[in-house]
Write a structure and sequence with these properties.
α5 packs antiparallel against α6. The two termini are about 30 Å apart. Helices cover about 70% and strands about 0% of the residues. By secondary structure, the protein is mostly helical. It contains 11 helices and no strands.
């Protein structure tokens, strides 16, 4: 519901009706609507943590290729959670988990471009990040072919040598 109606427009009663339980039963498990959102994106945050840990290890030369591979795979696997997070900045005010997602995305960008990315670097990261998410949300019926296509587009945007990509088809 968050992904279709938006967080603000979705009420606890609507969620309770959707999962066929009472409002009281829902509140027994989740104190607030924000707690539901946080629980829904917890695995996304865990996966972002794993990516950041892995990015510390590879040599600088293969880092961009690895970021591309991991970003595409993460986005494909977490389509539903990411769909809920449209308008992240608005939700960050009320949700610590959303704030964490934003911080981790910024960390990955810094690892990729350094602490002072050029405007061109920032634009490329923005185009890739939002293009991957948009394609995943719009093309729900496409699986492996979409991952391969997104990786290929990312390699073009960031001028990555295809030989650096370990999993061309993801």
């Amino acid at each position: 519901m968050f992904s279709t109606l938006g967080f603000q427009a979705t009420s606890l009663q609507m969620i309770a009706d959707e999962v066929s339980c009472s409002n009281a039963a829902l509140l027994y498990h989740f104190e607030t609507k924000t707690a539901i959102l946080d629980a829904l994106i917890a695995s996304l945050n865990d996966e972002l943590d794993d990516i950041l840990r892995e990015l510390v290890t590879p040599p600088e030369s293969g880092r961009t290729a690895r970021v591309l591979e991991m970003s595409v795979a993460l986005t494909i696997r977490n389509r539903a959670a990411l769909a809920m997070l449209r308008g992240l900045e608005e939700l960050a005010v009320i949700s610590p988990a959303v704030t964490t997602v934003l911080e981790r995305i910024e960390q990955a960008t810094t690892m990729l471009f350094g602490p002072h990315p050029t405007p061109a670097d920032r634009a490329a990261a923005h185009i890739f990040r939002h293009g991957v998410l948009g394609a995943c949300l719009e093309m729900q019926d496409v699986g492996d072919e979409l991952a391969a296509a997104l990786l290929e587009i990312g390699m073009r945007i960031f001028q990555v040598d295809p030989a650096e990509v370990s999993r061309p088809g993801i």
